[in-house]
Amino acid sequence: MKIGEDKLYVVKNIKEFIESILTRNEMYFGKGFTFNPHIHKFKEEDEDIIKLLIEIYEYKKVVDDMENYSTYFTKILKGKKAYLTESNLGRFLRDLKDRTIDVTINGKSIDNVSFVKDDFSLDFNVETKNNKILLKQTSDIAMPISPGGKYFLYQGKIYEPSEELIKNYKPFFNQFLKKRSHEISFNENFSEDVASFVLPALKKISRNVQVDKGLKNKFYEEPLKSSIYFDKQEDNIIANVLFKYGDIEINPLANENKKEEKILIRDIEGEKRL
Amino acid sequence: MFDINRKLIEEFSGDTVYKRGLKCYENKQVKSIDVDVIDRLNGKIAEINSVVKSSESNKEYRVFIRFRDKATFIQSDCDCPYWGYMCKHAVATLIKFIDEKEVILKDVEEKRNREFINNIKNNLLDKSNILPKIYLNTSYKLQIDSEHESGTSI
């Protein structure tokens, strides 16, 4: 954080700065600037961020007062840094309104980062190579920047995507992270899983999923028609559910269904509704 | 991937322990082996957990081994009573890994992909957004503990 009238000065001790605001005492920043709470006022656009810092200071005071030993003082305000929880980060980003900020992530600086409360769109490519199905994220990886995975840095912007997008992106991100790669390869025995689960999940997080022609030709896509058969067995009525895709029938309760030559794209969400 | 070899294991364990470990392996005392491959920026790390049957009794020992892709150091730990650096159970586990590396690593890949598909499947089958919602009632209580009965100085 920097403050000043014309030239801006680094706030080297945020805790003391908040105390000077609250106690209305002056704070010396340098030859050209001394903060005087009696004459200096924050602009309307900064008020919410100052309020946030005051709240963090108050929280630190409550926790510090609970501890009897000074060495255990919480370090959420330490020197020029204020450590933010994920909720604090959300508030800070929203309080920035339309302003941009400079971000340092793992030592790398990115200037003029803006905040958007919107879903990001990622690009993917699915192809067959050496009898394997290869899934590649062709766009950059959207990188979570808070422990709960609510905020992401992607293409020079910080995003707060919908919970639905986060839920669906999470398994892909975690898999890429485990592999330290933008690719996931599947053996051919995963073909139906890729068609029925991976592709529909990809379509929820991306408007650009390229599937190579060779793979597309193997897919079998027909609308889901379901049937329920009722059987009376002694005093019980048993319902048997059958999902039909064209000529292919699937018993959702059977462990294994007959394997087809074509790769069936199941309408999992339609099956779920039933 | 993982160019660990029998010679390196022999160097780490010593001749006697190596021979005993080889015997354990040949007697099929390695009951289970689970490998996790961790990708790091500076290379891959293998973490092996295995269960090896004792040569003298029906006891089973748990072995943990960790080494890098270009293995120059092998970290090994076993809950058997042996006091030296690498026991015969760790040696037997490593020989099994070397001999069956391709199948074991393929299984690791399959296991990872299966977990990945299951996570996606659970998301797609998540019923929480189609279930009817019930609104809860709430009540709160504020407890104030002052330093003195008449309050705290301000």
TrEMBL record, chain A:
Every Helicase SWF/SNF/SWI type bacterial domain range? 80-273
Question: Which InterPro entries does the entry mention?
Answer: Helicase_SWF/SNF/SWI_bac
Q: Which domain of life is it from?
A: Bacteria
Q: Which Pfam families does the annotation name?
A: SNF2_assoc
**Name of the protein this chain belongs to:** Bacterial SNF2 helicase associated
Origin organism lineage: Bacteria, Bacillati, Bacillota, Clostridia, Eubacteriales
From TrEMBL, chain B:
Provenance organism:
Clostridium liquoris
Q: By what name is this protein known?
A: SWIM-type domain-containing protein
- Which is an annotated GO molecular function term of this record? zinc ion binding
Q: Which Pfam families match?
A: SWIM
Instruction: Cite the entry's keywords alphabetically.
Output: Metal-binding, Zinc, Zinc-finger
Superkingdom per UniProt: Bacteria
Q: Which residues form the SWIM-type domain?
A: 61-98
